[in-house]
C-alpha cells in the first residue's frame, strides 16, 4: 500500500489546479464550521494538510494576535502565505510530533481518512492541544453517492473511492464513526456540522470531482475498477449542466481537550 501524496494527490500542476477547485467548492463550508468553535484572536492554530493555504490564510485573519502553523508533507503550494502570523512547516503527521499542549485549535480537512492508524493520530492530536483546546476534522461521508440514479456517475465516483482505499488505505466511512471515536478517546463537547452538496455538471463542485476522479484514472483502470470509457463518460458528465447528482456530505466534527485532564 502506498502513502498519501506518493501514489495519489502528488504535488504536480494538476494537483494545484485540483486544490484550487476544491477551495472554490468547499472553503465557505469550512469557514462556517470553524466559526462554530468561537475562535479567539490570540489563539495558536495548527492547519494540517494545508494544501494551497486558503484555510490557513482565513485562520490568520481570525487570530491577528495569535499564530497559524500551516503544515503539509509537501509545502510547495504554500509559498503565497505571506501573513506575519503564519509560519509554514514541512511535517508528516503520521511520523512527526509537536510538543504537548501547543495549540488552541487544530484543523484538518480531507486528510485523516487517507492516513493509517487514525485512532493513534487522534491521540497524538489530543496531546498537542492545550487544555480547553479544540480539534476540528472535516471529511467526506460517501453514502449519498450511491443514491444517485446515474450509472456513469456512480461508476466514476466509486472507482475513485475503491482506488484510494486500495492504494493509500482511505476509509470513506471514517467520518461517520468519528464522533463516537472522539468521545472514546477523551474528547468532550463533541459536535458535528454537515454540509450537503449537489454535483451539477459545470459547477465548481463538479469541476472538483472531475479533477479528483481523474487523478485515480490510471490506477483504477490497472486495478480493473473501471475502464477508459467509464472515465471518459464521467468527464463528459461533469461538464453537463443538465446532470444533478448527490455529492458526498462534508462533515465537520469537533471535540475539545478537557480543561482538566
Please give a structural write-up:
There is one protein chain. By secondary structure, the chain is of the alpha/beta class. It has a single domain, classed as 3-Layer(aba) Sandwich (Rossmann fold). Helix content is 38%, strand content 22%. Helix 1 packs across helix 6 and helix 4 packs across helix 8. It starts with 12 loop residues before the first helix and ends in a 5-residue tail after the last strand. The mean pLDDT is 94.
CATH superfamily placement: Vaccinia Virus protein VP39
How would you sum up the global shape? globular
Structural class: alpha/beta
Total count of domains: 1
CATH topology: Rossmann fold
| Helical content band | 25-40%
Give the uncertain stretches in residue-range form: none
Q: How confident overall, as mean pLDDT?
A: 94
Q: What is the CATH class?
A: Alpha Beta
User: For the largest beta sheet, what order do the strands appear in spatially?
Assistant: 3-2-1-4-5-9-6
Q: Tell me about the biggest sheet?
A: 7 strands, mixed
Number of helices: 8
**Relative strand content:** 15-25%
Question: Compute the gyration radius: what is it?
Answer: 18 Å
Descriptive tags:
alpha/beta, Rossmann fold, 7-stranded mixed sheet, 9 strands, 22% strand, globular
Ordered list of secondary-structure elements with their pairings:
Blueprint: H1 13-35, E1 44-48, H2 54-62, E2 67-72, E3 86-90, E4 103-109, H3 118-128, E5 129-141, H4 151-168, H5 174-184, E6 188-195, E7 198-200, H6 204-215, H7 217-222, H8 228-237, E8 244-246, E9 249-256
Parallel strand pairs: 1-2, 1-4, 2-3, 4-5
Antiparallel strand pairs: 5-9, 6-9, 7-8
Helix pairs in contact: 1-6, 4-6, 4-8
Amino acid at each position: 500500500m502506498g502513502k498519501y501524496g506518493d501514489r495519489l494527490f502528488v504535488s504536480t500542476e494538476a494537483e494545484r489546479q485540483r486544490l484550487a477547485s476544491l477551495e472554490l467548492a468547499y472553503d465557505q463550508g469550512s469557514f462556517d464550521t470553524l466559526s462554530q468553535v468561537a475562535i479567539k484572536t490570540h489563539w495558536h492554530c495548527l492547519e494540517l494538510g494545508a494544501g494551497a493555504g486558503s484555510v490557513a490564510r482565513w485562520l490568520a485573519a481570525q487570530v491577528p494576535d495569535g499564530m497559524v502553523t500551516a503544515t503539509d508533507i509537501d509545502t510547495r503550494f504554500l509559498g503565497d502565505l505571506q501573513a506575519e502570523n503564519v509560519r509554514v512547516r514541512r511535517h508528516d503527521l503520521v511520523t512527526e510530533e509537536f510538543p504537548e499542549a501547543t495549540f488552541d485549535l487544530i484543523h484538518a480537512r480531507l486528510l485523516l481518512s487517507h492516513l493509517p492508524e487514525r485512532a493513534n493520530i487522534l491521540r497524538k492530536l489530543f496531546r498537542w492541544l492545550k487544555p480547553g483546546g479544540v480539534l476540528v476534522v472535516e471529511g467526506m461521508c460517501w453514502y449519498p453517492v450511491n443514491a444517485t440514479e446515474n450509472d456513469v456517475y456512480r461508476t466514476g465516483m466509486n472507482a475513485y473511492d475503491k482506488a484510494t482505499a486500495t492504494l493509500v488505505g482511505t476509509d470513506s466511512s471514517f467520518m461517520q464513526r468519528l464522533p463516537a471515536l472522539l468521545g472514546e478517546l477523551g474528547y468532550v463537547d463533541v459536535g458535528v456540522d454537515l454540509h450537503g452538496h449537489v454535483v451539477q455538471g459545470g459547477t465548481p463542485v463538479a469541476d472538483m470531482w472531475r479533477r479528483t476522479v481523474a487523478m485515480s484514472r490510471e490506477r483504477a483502470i490497472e486495478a480493473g475498477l473501471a475502464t477508459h470509457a467509464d472515465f471518459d463518460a464521467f468527464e463528459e458528465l461533469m461538464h453537463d449542466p443538465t446532470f444533478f447528482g448527490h455529492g458526498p456530505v462534508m462533515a465537520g466534527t469537533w471535540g475539545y481537550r478537557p480543561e482538566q485532564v
